[in-house]
Amino acid sequence: MAVNKDSNTYTIAFAAVMVVVVGSILAFLAMFFLPTIRENERFEKQQNILYAMGVNDNDESNVNFIPTDRVEAEFTTYIKEQLVIEGDNITKNDEAYLIDLKKQLSAIKKGETPKLPVFIGEKEGKKFYIIPMYGKGLWDAISGFVALDDTMTVQGVYFDHKAETPGLGANIKQRYFMDDFTGETILNGTRYVGIKVAKGNNDPLNAIKDDNEVDALAGATITGDGVSAMIKVSVNLYKDYLETIRVK
Predict the structure, then answer these.
(1) Domain coordinates of the chain in residue numbers?
(2) Fewer beta carbons within 10 angstroms: which end of the chain, N or C?
């Protein structure tokens, strides 16, 4: 009996078969490439942590990460300790960089004790205390790392985003914006206030380093507010730990 390819039954059956076939292929490919995806995620986190502490291949104006064929060796060289803060307990963990801060923030909302990673780096005889950050931009999540010294002065940052507007909020990843944070303090007196991305802060060259402010990005007010909130929330999460290493 001939199959009526113009019938609704045939169309529905054909579509169902294609969904199953294509779905199976995609599932297989996802499983096949999962180890590579996980490896790339590890490399990316290592690159971002190193970038925040100034270990990168930057030229005069561009962001250039340590390449993946070198990043593990560089990470081991410069990151001397990885710690996990869980309540009053601080433990060493060589895979602390794999902790998802988003999940830890969700744990706090549920009343659970979060696991907060800290990375202690050393470069040219100077110590860096690097903490992760997570927040919300205009369209989706923003994240990053901030490297501090024992005076709570920023030694470097790295910001990332999922879906900010190209040419506007997405510019939080540009060097001219990230470089402005270096030298700023997250303290106002003894209070952990973070750093505000401020419009009209009368310091467009960012020469003033004790005002807890950097100049905002044009046309990206909400993203800038998200960065401000992200830094403030993150440094306050780590406040008790930072007080143990801060030079009084």
Answers:
(1) 80-245
(2) N
